């Protein structure tokens, strides 16, 4: 039995339970998804946590009845009449969209009928280990002008052990949710109604982490022969027509008029890098040319899909474009793959998943160029002996791509790195270089990001570490806490020594108990807490507490500095 079939059947059991509890509810769709299933309902009153418990109880009763799933095929006309009689307007909408004249239905126990192509399990009693998880809003067909339905998410497994493990991870994920931890730790917020949705405000601590990530990016790119550039945030509409974005990406672009011309708030950095490449005639001796930018872009995302730092309207990418000769393409791709793996290791991610996405239906460029570009990406992965899966038709409109998704501490995948091989844009912009025989040739263009959106990567970091960032990334690496007022003078001298060594340190001298101040530093995820009392002042030492390890005893200040510097150097 396939897990997706089990989960899809469980979604039907949930729909039947809801209809039997609230007959007036209208049904949307109920597919299986990666971690479970969902079903959309049109119900006047909102579902609440108590309702989920009622639905689960009713589902269990339906499971116990051992109701068979029975498939039927009827004509489109009969199906429309059936669901019209049931008052299921959304099902009628779906039937009208189906291309075939025959429609398949599934009946459960002779008292519930749903539109479905299947397959399903034999009977309800095969579903034994399930749990309803959450309620969310969802526009019908994902279109904001359509009615808002209520979506109930659930999951289902073949055995209880797998369900329990999943629920444990779900609870852990809730604790690690960057949307809660980020604001609580003073990193960022995105909820200013005055500014608008999907826009990130970095607070001082978050700005420090962001700067550390950017400094890492600049250093690592320079080591690998990239040249840093900066391009404007707005550019004329004609540039985006040439690139193809205006035709294929218009719905995600912000446009506005200046005088008599239309401008675009850039959703991508590639056209700007192309103009820099075109600024002078290039020689084969210059290739590959690697242009890198921490480029802030803006995309018109629907309000319903915005999600913390993971889906925003303004974000910064570690964007680079490599202009190279055809014979250099595979070597450059492999170098980018190595760069990605090195960066993931430095930030503490040790597992990845790789996908190769091929030509989509709506695209530009010749078949021959797409075949060459896809072969270059796939051969590079094969030569590095990397496992990957193929996503047919999921490439960019101008070229195929490799996606490298990192896996966090809970084994969840996060989209970060992308490598795209592009023959189309060099052709549309008439890019050239002069080869060793003095002839003009067209370069190949590789689009790539390593960490991807810095906002999304920051969110991944917070959830991977549960907010407890490693020492080299922590905005505050140590908090000094004097025991008494009289100890503050020595505490200040320790602070000055640490600051002189470029360590990031705070001192908590609030009029609170020692226990409360220590607890506050722990809640704020400080890697080290330095306790300063009379004994430490007399011995010219510090009493040290290490995050997740507790008391470390007394230590010389210089010894502490050396230890922390080694952790920073090794990115432990």
In short:
The protein has 572 residues and is an alpha+beta fold. The protein is built from 18 helices and 28 strands.
Would you give an account of this structure?
It is a single chain. It is globular and about 85 Å long. The model has no long low-confidence stretch (mean pLDDT 92). It has 3 domains: 3-175, Threonyl-trna Synthetase, Chain A, domain 2 (Threonyl-tRNA Synthetase, Chain A, domain 2, 2-Layer Sandwich); 184-465, BirA Bifunctional Protein, domain 2 (2-Layer Sandwich); 478-569, 3-Layer(aba) Sandwich (Rossmann fold). The two termini are 44 Å apart. Helix content is 37%, strand content 27%. Helix 1 (3-21) packs across helix 2 (49-64), helix 6 (178-184) crosses helix 14 and helix 11 (329-346) packs across helix 12 (367-383). The strands form 7 sheets. Strands 11-15-16-23-20-19-17-18 form an 8-stranded mixed beta sheet. Strands 1, 2, 3, 7 and 8 form a 5-stranded antiparallel beta sheet that branches. Strands 25-24-26-27-28 form a 5-stranded mixed beta sheet, sandwiched between helices. It is of the alpha+beta class and 572 residues long. Helix 12 links the parallel strand 17 (351-357) and strand 18 (389-391).
